[in-house]
Amino acid sequence: MHIERHKNHRIGWLRAAVLGANDGIVSTASLILGVAEAGAISMAAGEYLSVCSQADTEQADLERERLELAGYPKHEHEEMTAIYVGRGLNEALAAEVARQLMSHDALGAHSRDELGITDTSAARPELAACS
Ligand SMILES: [Zn+2]
């Protein structure tokens, strides 16, 4: 006697098991990715705003420095001289270094040596948010 063993009577629970597993994996993964993405976007927005405020402060400092250089060049030269004396140069050399640097790029010299703002340290909100 020939006996055929078909398994199609199991199709109902097999389909439900595959669908359920797939649903569970995709739903859970989507939820986790969504939460992680929301966290990353929130952190990027916070970083962007905080670095924007740093950039605003730096711009305000540079504008103040620009006005001081225009209005009080002698005082600004003395200020630079004092900075270089503080770094170890003698008074005459410090005054000459300050004179030469200020004649080349006064605002650049003051922003770098007085305010500590350089091209590499300047605030960049977009870069900070992306990273
Ligand atoms: Zn200055």
Describe this structure in words.
The chain has 131 residues and is an all-alpha fold. It has one domain. Helices cover 79% and strands 0% of the residues. It has four helices and no strands. Helix 1 packs across helix 2, helix 1 runs antiparallel to helix 3 and helix 2 packs across helix 3. The protein is rod-shaped, with a radius of gyration of 33 Å. The model has no long low-confidence stretch (mean pLDDT 91). Zinc ion binds next to helix 1 and helix 2.
Shape: rod-shaped
Order of helices and strands: HHHH
Largest sheet composition: none
Determine the N-to-C terminus distance: 73 Å
Number of domains: 1
Cofactors, ions and other ligands in the entry? zinc ion
- Computed over alpha carbons, the radius of gyration is 33 Å
Beta fraction: under 5%
- How much helical structure, as a percent, in the residues? over 70%
Low-confidence runs: none
Helix run count: 4
Mean pLDDT: 91
Query: Given the helix and strand composition, which structural class is it?
Result: mainly alpha
